[in-house]
Structure formats: structure tokens, C-alpha cells
Write a structure and sequence with these properties.
The complex is a heterotetramer of chains A (338), B (503), C (356) and D (329). Chain A is an alpha/beta fold and 338 residues long. Chain A has 2 domains: 31-135 and 280-309, Response regulator (Rossmann fold, 3-Layer(aba) Sandwich); 137-279 and 315-337, Response regulator (Rossmann fold), CATH 3.40.50.2300. Chain A has helices spanning 2-23, 45-60, 74-86, 99-112, 137-153, 171-185, 203-216, 231-238, 262-270, 281-298, 319-322, 327-337, and strands at 34-39, 64-69, 91-95, 116-119, 131-135, 161-165, 195-198, 222-225, 254-259, 275-278, 305-309, 312-315. Chain A is globular. Chain A starts with a helix and ends with a helix. Chain C has 15 helices and 2 strands. Chain C has helices spanning 2-16, 20-35, 42-67, 75-90, 96-99, 122-146, 152-171, 181-188, 196-214, 216-226, 228-233, 238-264, 276-286, 297-314, 321-355; strands at residues 190-191, 194-195. The chains are: A alpha/beta (338), B alpha/beta (503), C mainly alpha (356), D mainly alpha (329).
Chain lengths: 338, 503, 356, 329
């Protein structure tokens, strides 16, 4: 009995205190712009860096940022953005789970008259107006693999290619896989049937499956990873087998990836990686922010703009002149500078 | 030598204003056995819970071998040398006998935390042989019979060199043979000078083992004294507060020839062999047998819980080729199982929900699978609860687990009675319930028989069977060994038949 | 002293009643409202409620399985499979670039759309297929649990990985767009002022309520969960009851799948990928026991409300994404702690009543 | 004759996990003969070692009748803390390992406190800790990948005496310690007792809180150790590290015969076989170059089969042993 009373008092007291604390806070100044930044999850270094660039830049401009992590659930993302809309945000930037859900969510924003920007993963169709910045994953992958194939041709032997496939539920990984195949199929005589290794965008799975695959087919000498963030696992598997060798060594495995992060830059510099597809992070982040803020300023409710990140394949050949365009390199520089 | 092992002075305990114990004084002399009796709710378990450190006392003092004794938790009681052998055994079925014996303190290698397996097994062997249990100590406890588990509990108490051993209803799940084995062990303990408190509803047993007897009623000590001053009748009248003239009510036995249940050559290899009998209208037919003789297994097969390979079962002149509980219930067969906790009740559910579990279909709108007619079920169940004199709070809310054993058993009985059974199978219906409730249940059974229900009555209490039944069948080793009519009842002959070895 | 006692009687009743989780949720809501005024704005409330319905459908299904002492981890993968198959029946158009390498291309769908594309019965047929498949998978789960005596956790865990794999296999990772407008209306449309999702799920809840509280079958579910041996001695067809619980869970997953697919306007092989712990978490927070025999439709509603209000409130906070996770976990823990305290107090009171 | 047959059936049923393995090996021996090479088998064990270690920790909690959903987040937090400590304060690999285990133990201690002292249901406690833990980990890492120095990753791929890879050695050591603890110490036996019936355990004078707390803390420690070993092989910790591993660990333990209701199960050989079984299936599928989309379907089929056989076995064994008792009487 006595317990029950104490318990109730405890709750009531807590509520009163918290309410008081809540009420005593100042209201946000009404002129401050609020932007909702919703992302599906920060799986790769690319998105981590983008997240950092976007939120820091916005906050530096005295813009209120609502960050929303959808934990790879399109539905949750839809709910989050609806909540943001109900909260009268001024604009939305999102990294959608996939192109299809992006279309639905853009529709929601359009209906509410709030400008929306889609970052790095394009909506499945252009039926609804939005600001989109996107890199052509398929083309960038194809370019990188094409360079790797060129390098392979010089070796004058039949190559055994292997691709680390990303999560099968993710559009970008499917596009990258398609790009890989386009480049491979351009050289029908050079390559054997490629080995596909599932990674589910998970390091542990990658390690286990890559190890198993190399056990079966130890002659693999051409390896493309669908994302740069898996290089440490590639190294962990290749090194004990004596296949982690720089370019020029007869045991060298021709290596390539996509993203362009700082680890990839370091590995290219050290001569382990032949080529990597680069999306221009800072360009994309700036482009989407500028476009969105511009739309907010002009009072456009459903702005439409399709911004293409040219992207390119950074190769050993063009490294000297183009490394400046690689975001991983710039982050490394910035860290070294600070 | 005649020092007081346990001295209880003016102990009181109340729960939320209800006085459970009122200034109880009790002495147990060292080396003696105290028989403690009382109806459910008389305060026995409260007293024992205080001794066991489960609850704290409100007032009074306890001295254990002269020292003040205020246990704060069960571990304190154990440390002070009090061992409980509970009604629901506190054994761990997933562990071996040896593990159970030493669970709070294993023999260890010197100065290491590791268990010395060899010495554990050796010591366990010694303990087991001292309670006359010849099993390897590695045997998992879940494979033991209830009697063997009881012996393991005693061995555990002996291992701790307990100064007082408290037996709380130790014989409820034991067969006659196991019971005599238990008494032999208790005798052995008494000879060694062990102090014992023995609690039971089986008054004959209490008389048999105790040196002194104490009776509790409504939280007060009613009487106490040496055994010679007591008889079963005096014990009952002290407990109940009035005289019970007759344990087993009389009944006109005018059997009708109509067989309600016919079993013909029922066989299931390894369980029962070639069982044939008939149960008539208005008849109470007893089945006596030791644990493992196949008596409970037989009725489980009849009720369709276990399979059989050959034989025929006819219920109310209808052939039942493939019995199942649902089918049997449809043919008005009822079965009160031996373990009400595991198979009789939904402990979490209310009394009402337990009572109407079987008759939901009868009290429903829109067909037997439709909606429950609440008015009707409430009426039916309340009537039944009144008829059986079930003591509980509001039956819609009172959970079955908060009832006393006797009332729980009445709920199980009431649940089946609501189906208007033609044949009622009772497996140990009075196990572990107090005298008052027993008498009530006997009366209910008699009323049913008089109304024409055929009753198949299984019990390990021979007295009870002889008091209640018109006919007794004796089973041993899965076979029917003998049949006794009421006029030829002879305790020795029945026991002999039950003990007779195979063939 | 007397005043104090009278003052306390009402809250005491609330704390000890079934509706404690609702009270907690309401208090939490008020607290957040004080900080973020638009919390109670009608648009936000509409949003909040629209998030309740599909989740509630799943939790109600889960509850049936929990009541019979099982667990259904496969609900979300049932959603994925049914979402994809339903879309294959009714989608208006398939993009050949994405689907022409699919093994089912030209078999049940083609560029002209799904199996029944454009046909007037397409949407009802698709809904029928989704519910039937959901119930079918539930039936398989139930069969394995009841007849083969396999542990529910493992059965449904395996089913989870199998059917989510199957959903991805069927579409080769692609989402199926171009669903008919009448289907999408289920997720967004309204009948008069009442959203159709509300209509569907509230009627589902009402049916579940009637089954559990008023019907013979409902009592059987509880009996099986509380003590399966007593239930079988009492002539209850326990196997069938268990199977039925899983079938119902599958059915509810089908409903959830319809609502979520309609909202997202696509058949998605990854639908509800990370929803599972929300479903079970909501059920458990609501007070439904993982050990069987205990659960009420109202409790499911409260559990879902709690989770949805929690998520909604976190969406208001302008803080870093990781802080949101930390706060979410702490709030769940606090709610559980309060509930544990409450149970202990309630247990004491029962002893008092019992002794009286 | 009959007795002999019964004995044989008994022996067969008691060893079904082993038989199942034999079956698995034969199937994949035909489909992908390469998978039977020594090197590959060593790989399977190496890859299984980290899930195995977590499963061993999980076993302790499952034995008490609880569940720990937070091991995945625990792995992430402890690995991130260790990794950052090595990066920023350049501490050596051994202090880092110690730090990692301490974080794991603290994580476990929070679970233990909430379960044993505050008496909250384990499912909710560990669910909340799973969410909170991930958040705390991300707070430290800011979602960046944290890479481990070569001094650690070297250990991941190195062999003890050039023979056995370190992860396998550690796995064996963990299994041995857990086995000793559970089978040969009083506390271990008490954990079984608590899982069987907590109330009875309390009445028998067992300190149930101590048993519970030990179980949860050990689960935390083993989770962080498993995480560390995994990172030593991977080279870095990504934001998704450990996600979903709780289900793998539970699946491995349950496949190995551990009951989710507490009190039943053995670390050796049960849990070890469970962990290796799962890894063997996925490894063999890659070896056999099966269509990626079919992997989860086939793996689920194998696990279903294993669970099915196991449940057949336990019902049948229960029947057999019950009858045996009758015969002895």
C-alpha cells in the first residue's frame, strides 16, 4: 500500500518536473529555417562523409537540422518524413532506401508543398518534381572496370574475375553489378565466367564468403568490390594467400572498387588498387544544398532539377591530374592539414 | 538430553489485518518427532514459512537449540540447520541426483573453485545408500518416480547434517510400498536421534511416526501432547472443532445391471495387458495398485490420452474405436486426473474460467463454436460453485492458483460435473487435501453415484477405497490381478494381490 | 491525512489497472507536447494515427501466437512475400529493363503488367492472394510447431530467412511499381472522414476482440497458452488451435502488407525488414506475455500507441541521429521499469485480497 | 536382441548432431568437392569461431531462461571503443583487448542489474539496450568506420605455432572455460538450477541473483571478445557491425540443443556444432557457386531440417527413456 503511494508520487513528481523543464525552454525563433535530413542508414563512408558535410554546412548557416535515420526501412522513412512535414519544415533532403519509395515520398512532399531534395539515389521515375543529385553508378562502375580490363589485357592471359555484390535489396549495388558486367562482357575472350560473392553490405559476410570463394577458385586475379568500404576485408583475405601485392608483382590481383573514399585513395597511392569509381561527394552535397536553399528562398514549393554528378573512374593512369577531384583525397588532406 | 531443539514463544503473524497466527507456543524436544496437523488455513504453512525464513514474524520469539533465531531468507534457515522437505519437491529435474544433493555446496578440490567429481559421486553414493536408494548418482532427476525424488530430498537434508528436518506432506504422491520405505527411513533417522517435524493430512501416518502431536486451528494452538493421548477421531475433532461422525458416507447400493463402461482385453505393450472389466450404473468401482502398476496409465488410455494396440472400449453401449478426449467428453465421460496442477487446472485463470472450460459449447450462442453466453455461464458456474461449496473470492476474478488444495480439487471436479457425466473417472481425487475437504468430496461422489453415475475410483489409499467402493479391482504389472466385492474386503488380501510379482 | 488518501485513490486505481501503459503514453505525450507544441496539431495527430494502424494489425496477429505460447518471427517476411506476389497479380506495367531476366517474366507478368492487370477483379484478386498466401505461410509455421513439435522460435526464424530470401528471389531485388490507383487508395484514401486503413484495422481489432473475449475459440487460445496439458485433457483440439493462431498471425501480416504496400505504392521484397522488433516490443510493452496465456487486444493497442508516440516524438527532436537511438532505448527501459514496479505493487495487493 | 537394437537407436539418436554433420559433408562433398579440403574446413572453423564465442555467452543467458538481444550492439560499442583508443591514444593491442572486454562486461552488467535487481523482463531490457548501445557506439564513431592497426589484424590471420589460426585457439579456450565453469563449478550447476526453476533455486539456498548476474556479464564479455576477434579478421569496424548477430548466436545455441526456456543445453559439443553447422552451410553454398538469390532459401532449408531432426530426436528419446524406467521396476 505504502509502496503504491510512493510510486504514484514519484511518477507525478517526475511529470511535473519534466513539464516545467519543457515549458521553461524558449520557443525557436520563427525566422530560423528548418531542414529535415532523412537518410536510410549510414552504411558506407560515402554517406557518412556526405552526412557530415551536409549537417555541418547547414548548421554553420544557422539552419535547424532534424536528422532522421530510417534504419534501412522505407516505411519508417516515409513515417519520418510525414512527421517532418507535419512539423512544417522548410525543406527536406533525403537519401532514400530505394528509387521506388523515393517516388512515393516525393509525392508526399509535393502534396504538402515542401521542396524536397534527393541525394545520391535517384527516384525510379521522374513523374514527380524534386531536386535530384545523382551519380550514374552503372556508368562509373563500368568505367572503372573497363580500366581494370585494359590493365588485364596487358597480362596476356585469361583472367578469373570476381565481384563482391552489395546487398541484393539495394538499387545502387544492382546498378554497380550491371556496370561491372557491361565492362566484362565487352571482352568475351579475356574473362572466364565471373564469380559472384554476396556481401549483404556486411563486413563479416564479405570476409567469410570471399574466403570460401577463394578456397574454391584460388586463381582469382581480378577483383571488383561494389563499395570501397570493403577493402579491409579484401586485404584480410588476400594477404594470407600471398595475393596482396602491389601492381607489377606477378601475384598482383587487379583491384577496383567504387565510392572514392580515403582508404581507397591510400591503397591506390600505395599501388594495390588499380582503379576506383569516384562520385564527387562535395559537389553532390553542395549542389543539393544550394538548390534546396535557393528554392526555399524563392518560395518554390515543388522545384524540379536533375543534377548529374559526372563522376569518373580514378585510375593509376589519371591519378596525378585527377586526384584533386576525389573526395577521399580531400578529406585526407583536410585531416592532415588540421 | 531432553533439551529443547525448538522453542516457539507467542508467535503472531497477520497479513493485512487478517490474523494468521495468534500467540502460538510450541516446543520440540531434541531427538523427538512432532506431528503437526490442522486444516488448510489453520496456520501450518505460515508457521513453517516463518521457520523457513520465507516470511518475517510480527511478534514473539524463536529459539533454536537455545540460540535466538530470526531467519531473513531461506538460506539463513538452511544455514541454521533447518531442512524442508516440501510438498512440491524443490528438485531440479534437469540436473543429476548428485548435482541436486550438492547444489548449494559441492565438494571441491582443495583451494580451487573446481568441483571434485569423484568425491561428489562417492559422497552421493554413501548418502543414497543411507536412504536406501540404489541408483547411480549421475541419473537425471526427471527420470525418477515421485517416491525416489522424496528420498533424494531426504538425502539432501542428511547431507547438510540438518538439526531439524521438516516433512511437509511427504506421502501425497507415494505408493504404499514407497510410503513404507519412507517410514523405514524416518525410523532410522529417529533412531539416530534426529529431530523431526512431520506435517500431514494423513492422520494415521502422523500417529505412526510422531512422539508428540500439536493441532492448529484458525491460527491458534488448540492442543498439544504426547501421542498416546490422541486417536484419529480426537485429532479430527480438534482440527475441525466439531466431531465428524463418519468419514465415508453410507449409500444404498442397488446396482443396476446396465454397464456404462466396458473394457475388453485392452492391451498396450509395456503398459497394460489384457484388461477386461465392466462399470455399472450407480457403481463406484475402485482400482488399487502400486505406482507403476499401470492403473493411471489404464485410465489415460481409456480417456484417449495415450494409444493402445488391441482391445475394445464401449461407453454407454457405444463402441469407441479411436478414443480421444473430445470424443469421450461428447459421450459424457469425465476424467479427473491425478495431478491437478499440471493437467487439471489453468492456474492463472479464474475459478469461473476453469469451471466452464468444458461447457463453453453448451453455453454459447450461434452454435458450439460461437459466442459465449455470459449470463448463462455465470449462472451455471455460480450454481456449481455453491453446490460444491467452493471457498473463494468472486469466482470471476479469483485465480485458481490462490485456492487451497481442497478447493482446487473441487474446481476440477465441478468442471467435469458441469458436463453431466455418465461415467466419471477419478484418479487420486483426495491427494494432499485436508480432512474437511476430503469428507466433502466423498459426499459429492456418493451423491453422484446415487443419481446413477458410474464412477471409476483410483487411489493409493486402501482405506479410502474400502470405504467408498462397491467393488475393488487390483492391478499389478499392467494386469488385473484380483477383484473384491464389498463383502469380501480384506486389507491383507488386497495388498498381497497388489504386491504379487509378475505372473 | 484523509484528504491525501482520497486524492490518491483515483491515481492508485489507474496505476494498478490494465490501462497503465496508456496512462504512461498519455503522460509522455503531454510532456512532449509541452516542449513541441505541434505535437498535438491535427496534422501530426493524423500522422501519428496513420502510423498506428498497420503496426497494430501486425501486433494483433503476433498477440494470438504469443497467447498460445509461441512466437512469430516470420511476420515481416510474410509481408515481403505477399507484397511482391500481390503486386505481381495487379501491377499495371513492368519495366522490362528491370524484370526481363526474371524467371517469371512472361509467365505471370510481362510488360503489359501483372497476371490480372487492368482487369476489374485485379485488386480484389490481389488482396485475396496476399491474405491467402499469408495464411498459407502461417499454416506451415503452425504445422511445424503443432504437429512436428519443433520450437516456435526456430521454426519462424527459419521461415523468416526463407521467405524474405524468396521475396528477393522472386523479383530479383526489384521493387514493383505502377500499382492500380484503387489499391493505393487503401493506404491513403478515406471513406467519408474516416481513413480506410483505420476502418480495416479497427474492424480487425474488433474481430480479434470478439474472438478472444466472447467466443469459445478465444477461451481455447488462452487455455492452450496457459496449460497445454490441461487443455488437451479437457478435449480441446490443441494442435488445431495452435495452427489457427499462426494462420491468424499470417492473415494479419497479410493485412499489414496490404496497408504498407499501398502506402509505399509498390510491391517490395524488403518490406518491413527491420520492423520485427518493433512488433514484438510493442506487444511485450503492452503487457502480452512471451510465455503464453496472457494478452488482450487493448494491451496490443496500448503497446503500439506507446511505440508510435515514442517514434513520433523522437522525430521532433533536432538532435544527432545517434542521440535518438540512445533516448529511445532509455525511454523503453524506463517504461519497462515502471511497469515492473507496478506489477510488484499489484502482486502485493493480490496477496492482501487473497488473505482477506 | 531387442535390447541391442534399443541401445543402437539410443546411440544413434544421442549423436544426431554428428550424423547431421556427416550428412552435410557428404552432400557438399558431391556438389562441391573443394569444400572438403583441409584448408576449407579450417576456414569454416575460423569463421565460425566468433559467432561460436558469442553463442557460448548467449548459452549462459539462455540457460537462466533469459535472452540477450543486445550482443550485436555490445560487439559494436566495445570494438569501437577499443579501436578509437588504439587510434587516439595509441595503446597496444593487449590493453585494447582488455578495454574491449571491460566495456563488454559493463554492458552485460547493465543488463544483469536490470534483470536481476530491477526484475524487468530480459527481452525488453536487452531490446532497449540493443537500441541504446547502437546509439552509444555511433556517438563514439560518428558512424565512421574505425580501423584497427596491423598489430591486431595480424593476430586475426596468424596461426599459433604456424598450425592453428588464433581465432580457433581462442574459440577452443572459451569453450573449454565455459565447459569447466558450467560443468565443474558450483556456480555453473547453480545456473542450470536457476534456469530450471528460479523459485525452487531460491528456496534451495542458491543466490539466484549471483547466478543471473554472472550469466549476463559473461554473455557481455564473450560478446565483446567475439567482436574483437571478428574485427581482428575484418580489419575495421563499420557502422553495421554486429547487426543481426544476436539471431545468429541464438540460432547456433538452439541448434546445439540449448532450450529457450532455460536449464537445458551443453556448450560442448552442442553449441560448437551449432555454430559450425551454420557456417558450413553458408560456406559450402559459396563453394558450390549456387545462385546468390538461392543462398538464403537453401540455408534455411538445411537449418529447418536440422531443427526437425532434433525435435524428432528429443520426443523419441523422451519416450524411450520413460519406458526404460518401467522395465527396470
Amino acid at each position: 500500500m505504502e509502496n503504491a503511494k510512493r510510486f504514484i508520487l514519484f511518477i507525478l513528481l517526475g511529470v511535473v518536473l519534466l513539464t516545467y523543464a519543457g515549458c521553461s525552454r524558449k520557443d525557436k525563433p520563427s525566422d530560423q529555417i528548418t531542414i529535415c535530413f532523412a537518410f536510410q542508414d549510414l552504411e558506407t563512408e560515402y554517406w557518412v562523409a556526405a552526412h557530415k558535410a551536409i549537417t555541418e554546412t547547414l548548421r554553420a548557416r544557422n539552419i535547424r537540422v532534424l536528422e532522421r535515420n530510417a534504419h534501412q526501412d522505407a516505411n519508417r522513412q516515409l513515417e519520418q518524413i510525414r512527421d517532418a512535414i507535419a512539423q512544417d519544415v522548410d525543406g527536406i533532403i533525403m537519401i532514400p532506401q530505394d528509387g521506388e519509395s523515393a517516388v512515393t515520398i516525393i509525392g508526399e512532399a509535393n502534396q504538402a508543398g515542401i521542396p524536397i531534395g534527393v541525394f545520391n539515389r535517384p527516384p525510379a521515375d521522374r513523374s514527380k518534381p524534386a531536386l535530384v543529385v545523382v551519380a550514374d553508378n552503372e556508368r562509373i562502375a563500368e568505367e572503372a572496370v573497363a580500366y581494370m580490363a585494359e590493365a588485364a589485357q596487358k597480362l596476356n592471359r585469361k583472367m578469373t574475375p570476381l565481384i563482391l555484390v552489395g546487398d541484393l535489396g539495394d538499387q545502387n549495388s544492382i546498378e554497380r553489378k550491371n556496370g561491372f558486367y557491361k565492362a566484362i562482357n565487352a571482352h568475351p575472350d579475356l574473362f572466364k565466367e565471373p564469380i559472384e560473392v554476396p556481401t549483404k553490405w556486411d563486413a563479416v559476410t564479405t570476409l567469410a564468403n570471399l574466403e570460401a570463394a577463394l578456397q574454391v577458385e584460388p586463381r582469382v586475379d581480378f577483383l571488383f568490390t561494389s563499395s570501397d568500404f570493403l577493402y579491409p576485408q579484401v586485404k584480410a583475405v588476400l594477404e594470407p594467400l600471398g595475393k596482396w601485392k602491389p601492381i607489377g608483382d606477378p601475384a598482383h590481383v587487379i583491384l577496383g572498387g567504387l565510392d572514392g573514399d580515403s582508404a581507397a585513395y591510400t591503397l591506390m597511392k600505395e599501388g594495390y588498387v588499380d582503379a576506383t569509381g569516384v562520385q564527387d561527394l562535395f559537389f553532390e552535397a553542395d549542389a543539393i544544398m544550394e538548390a534546396l536553399l535557393d528554392a526555399i528562398e524563392k518560395g518554390q514549393s515543388t522545384p524540379e532539377k536533375w543534377i548529374q554528378d559526372p563522376g569518373f573512374a580514378l585510375t593509376q593512369e589519371n591519378m596525378a591530374e585527377r586526384e584533386m577531384d576525389m573526395w577521399g583525397y580531400r578529406i585526407l588532406k583536410a585531416e592532415a592539414g588540421s | 538430553m531432553a533439551e529443547c531443539a525448538l522453542k516457539i514463544r507467542d508467535i503472531s503473524k497477520s497479513f493485512f489485518g487478517i490474523q494468521a497466527l495468534r500467540e502460538v507456543n510450541l516446543d520440540v524436544r531434541e531427538g523427538q518427532t512432532l506431528g503437526l496437523i490442522g486444516e488448510n488455513g489453520a496456520g501450518k504453512s505460515t508457521l513453517m514459512n516463518i521457520l523457513g525464513g520465507v516470511i518475517a514474524l510480527d511478534g514473539g520469539a524463536i529459539r533454536l537449540f537455545g540460540d535466538k533465531y530470526y531467519p531473513a531468507c531461506p538460506a539463513d534457515a538452511t544455514r541454521a540447520g533447518i531442512a524442508f522437505i516440501h510438498q512440491e519437491l524443490n528438485l531440479f529435474g534437469n540436473l543429476s541426483i548428485a548435482d541436486n544433493l550438492f547444489i548449494d555446496r559441492f565438494p571441491q578440490f582443495r583451494r580451487s573453485p573446481l568441483i571434485d567429481k569423484r568425491s561428489t559421486y562417492n559422497q552421493a553414493d554413501v548418502l543414497l545408500s543411507s536412504v536406501d536408494l540404489r541408483l547411480p548418482p549421475q541419473t537425471p532427476v526427471e527420470l525418477l518416480t515421485p517416491g525416489e525424488k522424496q528420498l533424494v530430498e531426504i538425502a539432501k537434508a542428511m547431507r547438510r547434517e540438518s538439526r531439524i528436518i521438516i516433512f511437509d506432506e511427504p506421502t501425497t504422491s507415494l505408493t504404499a510400498a514407497e510410503r513404507s520405505r519412507l517410514f523405514a527411513i524416518i525410523k532410522k533417522l529417529q533412531d539416530q536421534g534426529q529431530t523431526i517435524i512431520y506435517i500431514s493430512h494423513t492422520l494415521e501416518d502422523v500417529l505412526r511416526v510422531s512422539d508428540t502431536i500439536a493441532v492448529l486451528r484458525d491460527g491458534c494452538l488448540v492442543s498439544a501432547g504426547p501421542r498416546d493421548e490422541y486417536s484419529v477421531n480426537k485429532m479430527i475433532s480438534d482440527m475441525v472443532g466439531r466431531k465428524i461422525e463418519q468419514m465415508y458416507p453410507t449409500r444404498d447400493t442397488c446396482l443396476e445391471a446396465k454397464p456404462l463402461l466396458e473394457v475388453q482385453s485392452l492391451t498396450q505393450p509395456g503398459i497394460v495387458r489384457d484388461i477386461t472389466f465392466q462399470l455399472h450404473k450407480k457403481e463406484v468401482l475402485g482400482i488399487f495398485g502400486l505406482m507403476g502398476s499401470g492403473r493411471s496409465e489404464l485410465v489415460r488410455i481409456i480417456f484417449g490420452l495415450d494409444p493402445f494396440s488391441a482391445g475394445k472400449i464401449r461407453l454407454n453401449t457405444v463402441n469407441i474405436p479411436k478414443p480421444s478426449p473430445a470424443l469421450n467428453i461428447r459421450h459424457a465421460l469425465a476424467f479427473v486426473t491425478e495431478n491437478r496442477r499440471e493437467e487439471g487446472l489453468l492456474m492463472e485463470a479464474s475459478v469461473m474460467e476453469n469451471l466452464n472450460l468444458l461447457t463453453l459449447g453448451k453455453c454459447s450462442k450461434l452454435g458450439p463454436m460461437g459466442l459465449i453466453d455470459r449470463m448463462k455461464t455465470t449462472k451455471c458456474t455460480q450454481q456449481m460453485s455453491k453446490q460444491l461449496n467452493i471457498k473463494s473470492g468472486p469466482i470471476q476474478k479469483h485465480q485458481a492458483k490462490n485456492l487451497s488444495g481442497g478447493n482446487q480439487q473441487k474446481v476440477v471436479l465441478g468442471k467435469w460435473l458441469l458436463t453431466d457425466p455418465v461415467v466419471l473417472i477419478l484418479d487420486e481425487p483426495t491427494r494432499g487435501i485436508d480432512v474437511g475437504a476430503k469428507v466433502e468430496i466423498y459426499r459429492i461422489i456418493n451423491q453422484l453415484a446415487e443419481k446413477g453415475t458410474g464412477i471409476l475410483y483410483i487411489s493409493s489409499e486402501l482405506d479410502e477405497l474400502m470405504g467408498m467402493c462397491d467393488r475393488i479391482l487390483v492391478m499389478s504389472n499392467g494386469r488385473l490381478k484380483a477383484e473384491f466385492q464389498r463383502d469380501d474386503y480384506d486389507q491383507e488380501a488386497i495388498l498381497q494381490a497388489a504386491f504379487s510379482a509378475s505372473n | 491525512m484523509k484528504m491525501y488518501r482520497i486524492l490518491l485513490r483515483w491515481p492508485e486505481k489507474v496505476v494498478l489497472s490494465d490501462h497503465f501503459v496508456l496512462v504512461l503514453t498519455a503522460l509522455y505525450f503531454l510532456l512532449i507536447w509541452a516542449i513541441y507544441p505541434h505535437m498535438a496539431g491535427h496534422r501530426n495527430l493524423a500522422n501519428l494515427l496513420s502510423n498506428v494502424w498497420p503496426l497494430l494489425a501486425l501486433v494483433i496477429g503476433q498477440m494470438f501466437v504469443l497467447i498460445v505460447g509461441g512466437i512469430d518471427l516470420s511476420q515481416t517476411s510474410i509481408m515481403a512475400v505477399t507484397s511482391v506476389l500481390g503486386a505481381m497479380v495487379m501491377a499495371m506495367r513492368f519495366d522490362p529493363a528491370k524484370f526481363q531476366h526474371n524467371p517469371l517474366w512472361g509467365v505471370i507478368f510481362s510488360e503489359q503488367g501483372g497476371w490480372l492487370a487492368g482487369h476489374s477483379s485485379a485488386v480484389p484478386a490481389a488482396i485475396f492472394v496476399m491474405l491467402a498466401i499469408g495464411m498459407g505461410i502461417g499454416f506451415l509455421n503452425g504445422l511445424a510447431v503443432a504437429k512436428l513439435r519443433m520450437p516456435p522460435f526456430m521454426v519462424t526464424l527459419v521461415a523468416m530467412s526463407f521467405f524474405s530470401g524468396l521475396a528477393i528471389y522472386l523479383t530479383r531485388s526489384e521493387n514493383i511499381m505502377h500499382l492500380p490507383a484503387s489499391f493505393i487508395a487503401i493506404g491513403k484514401g478515406a471513406v467519408g472522414p474516416i481513413p480506410s486503413a483505420l476502418l480495416i484495422v479497427v474492424s480487425l481489432a474488433a474481430v480479434a476482440f470478439v474472438i478472444l473475449n466472447r467466443s469459445v475459440l478465444g477461451r481455447w487460445f488462452y487455455a492452450v497458452g496457459q496449460n497445454i496439458r490441461t487443455a488437451s485433457v479437457s478435449g480441446i483440439p490443441t494442435d488445431r488451435v495452435v495452427i489457427l493462431a499462426y494462420v491468424f498471425s499470417g492473415f494479419c501480416a497479410g493485412i499489414g502488407s496490404i496497408l504498407y504496400s499501398a502506402r509505399l505504392e509498390a510491391g517490395r521484397p524488403t518490406l518491413g525488414r527491420n520492423l520485427l522488433l518493433d512488433v514484438i516490443g510493442a506487444a511485450v510493452i503492452g503487457g502480452i506475455s512471451l510465455f503464453g496465456g496472457k494478452g488482450k487486444v487493448l494491451w496490443a493497442v496500448y503497446g503500439v500507441l506507446f511505440f508510435v508516440v515514442l517514434d513520433n516524438s523522437l522525430n521532433k527532436m533536432p538532435i544527432e541521429f545517434y542521440s535518438i537511438d540512445i533516448i529511445k532505448g532509455c525511454v523503453i527501459l524506463m517504461a519497462a521499469l515502471l511497469d515492473a514496479l507496478r506489477t510488484r505493487i499489484a502482486a502485493n495487493q493480490v496477496i492482501a485480497v487473497g488473505a482477506a | 536382441m531387442d535390447g541391442k537394437r534399443k541401445k543402437l537407436t539410443f546411440a544413434l539418436l544421442n549423436n544426431t548432431p554428428v550424423l547431421l554433420f556427416a550428412f552435410l559433408f557428404i552432400v557438399f562433398g558431391f556438389v562441391a568437392p573443394q569444400s572438403l579440403r583441409y584448408q576449407n574446413i579450417e576456414n569454416v572453423f575460423k569463421q565460425a569461431s566468433y559467432v561460436g564465442i558469442i553463442a557460448v555467452g548467449m548459452t549462459f543467458v539462455l540457460l537462466t531462461g533469459g535472452i540477450d538481444l543486445s550482443v550485436g550492439s555490445n560487439m559494436y560499442v566495445s570494438a569501437v571503443v577499443a579501436g578509437l583508443a588504439m587510434q587516439r591514444y595509441s595503446i597496444g593491442p593487449w590493453p585494447a583487448l582488455f578495454l574491449c572486454l571491460m566495456v563488454g562486461a559493463m554492458f552485460g552488467a547493465v543488463n544483469a542489474f536490470a534483470v536481476a535487481k530491477l526484475k524487468i523482463i530480459p527481452f525488453v531490457v536487452t531490446l532497449a539496450m540493443m537500441v541504446t548501445g547502437r546509439g552509444i557506439g555511433l556517438m563514439f564513431s560518428k558512424s565512421h568506420a574505425v580501423s584497427f592497426p596491423d598489430s591486431v589484424t595480424g593476430l586475426g590471420s596468424a596461426d599459433l605455432f604456424g598450425l592453428i589460426p588464433y581465432p580457433i585457439v581462442l574459440f577452443a579456450m572459451v569453450v573449454f572455460c565455459a565447459w569447466i565453469l558450467l560443468e565443474r563449478t558450483t556456480l555453473g550447476r547453480q545456473i542450470y538450477a536457476v534456469g530450471f526453476n528460479k523459485e525452487a533455486a531460491r528456496k534451495a539456498g542458491i543466490n539466484t541473483d549471483r547466478a543471473l548476474i554472472t550469466a549476463y556479464i559473461l554473455c557481455g564479455v564473450f560478446a565483446s571478445l567475439g567482436g574483437f576477434i571478428s574485427v581482428a579478421q575484418l580489419g575495421n569496424v563499420n557502422a553495421g557491425f554486429g547487426k543481426g548477430d544476436e539471431f545468429d548466436a541464438i540460432a547456433a545455441a538452439v541448434l546445439g540443443g540449448v532450450s529457450l526456456f532455460g536449464g537445458v543445453g551443453k556448450v560442448f559439443p552442442g553449441v560448437v556444432l551449432g555454430a559450425v553447422f551454420i557456417q558450413t552451410v553458408s560456406n559450402s553454398l559459396v563453394s558450390a557457386r549456387v545462385d546468390l538469390y538461392l543462398h538464403p532459401l537453401i540455408a534455411a532449408g538445411f537449418i529447418f531440417f536440422a531443427v526437425f531432426i532434433d525435435s524428432l530426436r528429443s520426443t523419441y528419446l523422451a519416450k524411450l527413456s520413460r519406458r526404460n524406467i518401467r522395465v527396470e521396476e
